[in-house]
From TrEMBL, chains A, B:
Record: residues binding FMN: 59, 96, 146, 150, 220-221
UniProt keyword annotation of Thylakoid present: no
Keyword Flavoprotein: yes
NCBIfam families with a match to the protein in the record: FMN_nitrolo (TIGR03860)
Keywords for the protein's UniProt record, in alphabetical order: Flavoprotein, FMN, Monooxygenase, Oxidoreductase
Family: Belongs to the NtaA/SnaA/DszA monooxygenase family.
Domain Luciferase-like: 35-385
Protein source organism: Rhodococcus maanshanensis
GO molecular function ontology, one term from the record: oxidoreductase activity, acting on paired donors, with incorporation or reduction of molecular oxygen
Entry superkingdom: Bacteria
Protein name in the entry: FMN-dependent oxidoreductase, nitrilotriacetate monooxygenase family
One Pfam family it belongs to: Bac_luciferase
SUPFAM superfamilies xrefs: Bacterial luciferase-like
Length: 448, 448
């Protein structure tokens, strides 16, 4: 068992009873689990048994046109992860929260609270909400334009970071004898005034164990990559081939260093949907079982939303109609390009495309033995396409259990993945330092 | 042990290591508990051992001028109650959330999530945020005016209720064979368009176990009482004498029936800060110990904030300076009036007033034996001043443990309080019906 100097990171991306859109119809799942908090607590424990870095929940602020066949969002991610925090001890807890439909004070506080409650295990997947129907739940007629959303996100994160920094690490004194609870010199107004927000601060919460939650990002457009290079410490991304993964990795790391950061301060985590079985043919057969359960009606609505074209009356066995240019897409630009390229390069019919997307909505699906999956992850890691992976089990809990019990031990034997936790915080798992408060630094300078 | 037809309700209002502002300096507390989630989980278990209806957390959206001596808000209430949900089974979980600095979609969703996670135990204390310094954290130069805040609150709650109703109770079908997750005819857009909010809906969460969280309110001004009469199912209030309590009770119930509701649909819960000891003199001595630990600097800042007058340079042993009229107060009008009346009626010095307010910031303090406390609660209940009580332990966990282990058994023996839980939801504990969705009713009419 060799211990390599560089190891990789594993996040479990959890969704309902699995990422495959027909997962809840397959006998390997119990559909009712989608609304069982016990189910999610158990998933947290399974992931922790596998020594994974973190679990993650996506989020959307509308049910959209999917109600009939699949509406999995029973729980709000921060509350759900708070429940999982109580059932686990080590694993990191990453929640999605939008910068387009919330404000920095509310958001900073909610993540500080999760970080306090979990003892330093909170992470924030920063999204700008690419869905058309989310806007209508927040007083808007249409989704704000793509660039504007990212500009707001930058100001939002700057303000949130200042709020987390507003209490220095040692601001709380708690001395019953003198009656001093906190040192007012170490608690700071932030006086943020920008194009979108004016916030006096300080945050109404002392600094949390991690100082700041882990900052995660998942958009891969040009604006998305620039944003990630500046702020993100981990990036989720959908990459279908090794070459594409390498290109994305190289591009993003170059942007990180261009921002004066060290390349290691951002971890690139491509997604993979693993169908695991003792033989490759059984794994393929398992994947086929799931594909056959896809409801074309649902899949067509999903695909229509991604492509910005109404396909609901389109023949399943015809190729796609002509698609708009990426410049016309205000939603998820990178996913649009990925799907368009996939469909056009192989001249797929709609039915074929739906099958390919069913597992992970564009993320790479891989059916194989535990060894084959481990080989594939090792290859991407060693060939410069990944610092770790976003594991998206097609069905739950079985798909996660199999990964943890069958794939993780192989990775551990190869010295690629930790055998025990060596840190107690999420930042620690990802090998990142505890950030110091921006106000501590300036106070130190002033008193020098 | 007689079982009376009408029983009363008990809520534990939990705050840091106790309501008394010097609680954290007293040897009966452990100051560090203010940031320990384990402490709060234990409080939930103690309250549940006493069969209390619910626990409750207040909330403020700024630390204000209190940082040096007392800043207790480490946790955000909904996440903290989510953590307590995992440590308990029956007790209701009431969180404060502001209508002035949030929006209906976000708020409706967060309480739906808590209700799902806790199996139907969520309650919302609806506040309009009376603090001056909260506004500056949300882009405003000053607090919005009192009436305007309540008007916004009405529209806010109407929209939130519509969102909770947007999924009918039986909308989720979850049939793996047909592939139908939800019945689209039972999931409704709300199309809310008002002066403050435009929201399409439906909520991105199926209907939660209680249908809607319990709606709680805690403002006692004229606008506050009208708001409560229309929306609230439980009301927290600070009443210092039996006569004042009776007058408030009568007034509020009359407003409830004027709104076409049954008087029993709203429970009036006055606050009480009990100092409990085996003899009355020991209880008084205990209270005195706490009063002596008050930091005058802190107390003056608190009092200045309540009264809208800067007292920080005022002599402790002089009477209060002239106070503004209630019409000039844009913050907490009812608390202002209570404190003003208290100070002026007995011509108190500032020091005396600070001592009287130290226990519960205006709520009634009562020092006595368990029997005396039980007598006092029974009196208020039987004399038409209360449907139950908001128990505000001056120090924690001891003040709650003593109440649960020494006062509750007396109330149970007298048949005034339940010996076992008879319901599984918070609404059930308070004897309230499961609300039906407003959309179910109209759908039934249309198809009739
Ligand atoms: C693994 C992964 C998870 C994502 N989760 C969410 C999510 O929970 N909510 C959301 O609104 N967008 C989510 N996204 C979408 C991105 O955050 C981003 O909004 C989208 O890629 C559009 O950004 P772009 O136009 O920069 O590519 C996710 C993307 C990836 C790759
Ligand atoms: C027991 C109790 C608890 C309260 N909790 C809060 C709170 O957590 N946050 C808040 O902003 N106001 C709180 N208040 C204040 C009221 O909600 C309300 O804002 C205040 O009484 C002003 O309203 P009024 O002017 O109608 O009296 C509380 C009041 C009482 C009696």
């Amino acid at each position: 068992m060799s211990q390599r100097s560089k190891q990789f990171h594993l996040n479990a991306f959890l969704m309902g009873v699995g990422h495959h859109e027909a997962a809840w119809r397959h006998p390997r799942t119990n559909a009712d689990d989608v609304r069982s908090v016990g189910h999610f607590a158990e998933l947290g424990r399974i992931a922790e048994r596998g020594k994974l870095d973190s679990v993650f929940f996506a989020d959307g602020l509308a049910v959209g046109p999917r109600i009939k066949h699949n509406a999995l969002a029973t729980f709000e991610p921060v509350t759900l992860l708070t429940a999982i925090a109580g059932a686990t001890e080590h694993i990191g807890l990453i929640a999605t929260s939008s910068t387009t439909y919330s404000d920095p004070f509310t958001t900073a506080r909610k993540f500080a609270s999760l970080d306090h409650i979990s003892g330093g295990r909170a992470g924030w997947n920063i999204v700008t909400s690419a869905g058309e129907d989310e806007a209508a739940n927040f007083g808007l007629d249409a989704i704000p334009d793509h660039l504007g959303r990212y500009q707001r996100a930058e100001e939002f994160v700057d303000a949130a970071v200042a709020l987390w920094d507003s209490w220095e690490d040692d601001a709380v004194v708690l001395d019953p004898d003198t009656g001093v609870f906190a040192d007012p010199d170490k608690v700071h107004a932030i006086d943020h005034a920008g194009a979108h927000f004016r916030i006096r601060g300080p945050l109404n919460s002392p600094r949390s164990p991690q100082g700041r939650p882990l900052l995660v990002q998942a958009g891969s457009s040009e604006s998305g990559k620039d944003f990630a290079a500046r702020y993100a410490e981990a990036v989720f991304t959908a990459q279908r081939t090794l070459a594409q993964g390498q290109e994305f990795y190289r591009d993003l790391k170059a942007r990180v260093t261009a921002h004066g950061r060290h390349a290691d301060e951002l971890k690139v985590l491509p997604g993979i949907v693993p169908f695991i079985a003792p033989t490759e043919s059984e794994a393929r057969e398992l994947e086929r079982e799931f594909t056959e359960l896809i409801s074309p009606d649902y899949a067509l609505r999903q695909l229509s939303a991604i492509l910005g074209v109404d396909l609901t009356a389109h023949s399943l066995d015809a190729p796609l109609p002509p698609l708009p240019s990426v410049h016309e897409i205000q939603g998820n630009k990178s996913r649009y390009e990925l799907v368009k390229e996939l469909a056009e390069s192989d001249a797929l019919t709609v039915r074929e495309l739906i099958g390919l997307l069913g597992g992970g909505r564009g993320h790479r699906t891989f059916a194989g033995t535990p060894e084959q999956i481990a080989d594939e992850l090792q290859l991407w890691f060693e060939q410069g396409a990944a610092d770790g992976f976003n594991i998206m089990p097609p069905y739950l809990p079985g798909g996660l259990t199999d990964f943890v019990d069958q794939v993780v031990p192989i990775l551990q034997r190869r010295g690629l993945f930790r055998a025990e936790y060596t840190a107690s915080t999420l930042r620690g798992h990802y090998g990142l330092a505890h950030p110091s408060s921006q106000f501590a630094a300036s106070r130190a300078r002033n008193s020098a």
